[in-house]
Amino acid sequence: MGKFLFLSVFLASAVNSAEKAGMPQLNTEFWVSQIFWLTVTFSILFVLLSKFILPKISRNLETRKSQILENISAAEKQREESELKIKEYEEIVKKSKNEAKNFINQAKKKLSRAINLKKESLEKELSKEIKKVEDEIEELRDKAPERINKIAIETSTDLLHQLIGTDVNSSSISAIVDDLSRRKMNKYYGN
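Structure (tokenized):
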């Protein structure tokens, strides 16, 4: 409260000193004309603002508001379109993946069939070759005792000829070799 009193006393002394010094705005004699011109100035300013400037500002604001609303609606449309495009893209990707899986599965099946066919043909060829080799082995096994006997007879005849110095009867040597080979045949050939 003391501050308010001090302030009012200060202002009153300032007004009195200003009147005495000749400041016309504080002189009460000119207040009526000052209020008149203040009212005229602010009225003109009000008319200018309300008739010319504020309508332009409000039109600009309305234009901006409508532009913003149009932009928002366009953005919403684009967002919806982009969501649809994303869904379409995802569907295309999903279909592509399924097609790729189907293609891979078909390729695997084809390869599996081709491998099985090749395997079967190789097994047939191998079994033919094995049979052929087994037949050759059997043939060699059957002929082996004769060849061995023949070689043994020739070798024995040559050895006896070199040891004794005379020719030995080959029929007696072949009888001995035949007799020995029959005894040992079971041991080597299992017959």
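The mean pLDDT is 83. Residues 14-189 form one domain.
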